[in-house]
Predict the 3D structure of the following.
Amino acid sequence: AMGAMTFEPVAPEGQESDVHIPLEQLAADVKQVLRGNGGEFLQALLLVGG
């Protein structure tokens, strides 16, 4: 690959996160973010490496 950008995941490849967010909850939280709310959700998502 060409270029200077690299990516290293927060967790080793194949390792599951200890935090499980139900898909329905994830969808509802994303809708809140799109409406301009949901700062807490974004912070939580960053903490789990999402």
Notes: The mean pLDDT is 78.
